[in-house]
Amino acid sequence: MKLIRRWLDRISFLGVTSGVFAWGFVQGNVALGGTIRFEFAFVVLAVVLLQAVISSLLFTGFVGVSGVSFLWSLRRDADPAPKYAGDTVTAIVPVYRDANVLDRSVESLLASEYDDLEVLIVCEEDDQAGLERARELAKQTGVSSLVNTRYPGSKAGAINYAVEETDSDHVAVFDADERVDPTFVPKAVARLQECDVVQGRTVPQPDGAVEELAYYESVLLSYVSRRLLYLCTEFRMAASRAVVMRRSALSITGGYDTEMLTEDFDFAYTCYRHRLDVEEQLDHPSKIEAAHSLRDWWGQRKRWMTGYVQVLHKLLANAQPIRKVRNLTSAAICAGTVIGSFLLLTILSKFVVLFFVGMESYFVPPLVAVVGVTAAVRVHDWRVGSVERLGWAWLVVPIVVPLYSLTAIKAVIEYAYGRGGDWYSVEKGS
């Protein structure tokens, strides 16, 4: 039965991928508005406007406007003044099979410029290496450890258990491999005077070919692509790393959903539906480790996309009652994310259309927009010390778009066949 399902899954993936590409190709060949005629000095110029041309220009405009907006946000995100003491903050660090990198988050949090910070490592019972490393680190002042015996088996459960076992005014969550900037928590606490949740930025470290891919994917698809959504709505991401929040935010939302593959994606929509005020903090980002192989990159992204589909399923099921507008808008925003990721592949097929009709020049605007925006962000990150070098991979960053779309297609197919998604742990360095 497993063998049949595996082959059915592969055949479906090949068929759907081919179908999406073909649909984009056929759609790109459609002539819009018929023939446009220009008459001047007895010369008649007829122009047929292809849908592929419009798509190219629209994509260029979207990336350009979103990129400029993100760069503007990076430049102006410098206030309010940080608070270095006050309300107690419990920094929760869930760990599972990450014992060799756990010291990164713990040591960086101990170096935080915020005085009233407590570090709590939450381990799983079946992770012996994590338990031992947590006990060693807990010997330091300001660090304690906890074994997740109440809601074992998920990051969401570990966070919820830690929240229940503590009573600090504010709660923060960080990944085990996350190097937290010393100024991040003081700035976040200052922002919490005016909001419920502060979400920081994470920067995958681009120290290899695949790592470069992960870095530019983060820039383009996690930050730049959301700018127009943030400008037009009050929705903001509220994740389960690089985040600081009031305890009341977790009380109102009920915490993270332990049934969700991507508990952070689900939590963001829960905050939005409960009208919590979520603010970004883009300066002083955390440095995180990126996937080190294409296999890890693929497995991790496919799991994330499967989680996005699961969240969409949940939002559609809970869209009632209609009078609660944010129930509907949440489902619409999530659907746009999933469907948009699914159809990114059609951009490639429309490039093929332009090539066949001899309009290769229309390749240039979207490529320049993608490369220009990501290169500008890379320069900014290099200047502020978030990355160590400028690199060269921004020249080939457009390949991120179709690759990411393939992971979305694969995730949708697996979810449709009843596969909720498997746990995937990427290899991390010591």
Q: What can you tell me about this protein's structure?
A:
InterPro entries: Nucleotide-diphossugar_trans. It comes from Halorientalis pallida. Keywords: Glycosyltransferase, Membrane, Transferase, Transmembrane, Transmembrane helix. The chain crosses the membrane at residues 7-26, 41-74, 331-356, 362-380, 392-413. Pfam families: Glyco_tranf_2_3. The chain starts with a helix and ends in a 14-residue tail after the last helix. Helix 4 (128-137) links the parallel strand 4 and strand 5. The chain has 430 residues and is α/β, with parallel strands linked by helices. It has a domain at 75-339: Spore Coat Polysaccharide Biosynthesis Protein SpsA, Chain A. The model is unreliable at 33-48 (pLDDT under 50). The longest helix has 27 residues, at 2-28. It contains 15 helices and 9 strands. Helix 13 crosses helix 15. The protein has a 7-stranded mixed β-sheet.
Features:
two-stranded antiparallel ribbon, globular, transferase, 430 residues, Spore Coat Polysaccharide Biosynthesis Protein SpsA, Chain A, glycosyltransferase, 15% strand, single chain, alpha/beta
SSE blueprint and pairings:
Layout: H1 2-28, E1 31-40, E2 43-50, H2 51-76, E3 89-94, H3 102-110, E4 117-123, H4 128-137, E5 143-147, H5 155-164, E6 170-173, H6 184-191, E7 197-204, H7 209-223, H8 227-232, E8 243-246, H9 247-253, H10 263-273, E9 278-288, H11 294-317, H12 325-343, H13 345-356, H14 364-384, H15 400-416
Parallel strand pairs: 3-4, 3-6, 4-5, 7-9
Antiparallel strand pairs: 1-2, 6-8, 7-8
Helix pairs in contact: 1-13, 1-15, 2-13, 2-14, 11-12, 11-15, 12-15, 13-15
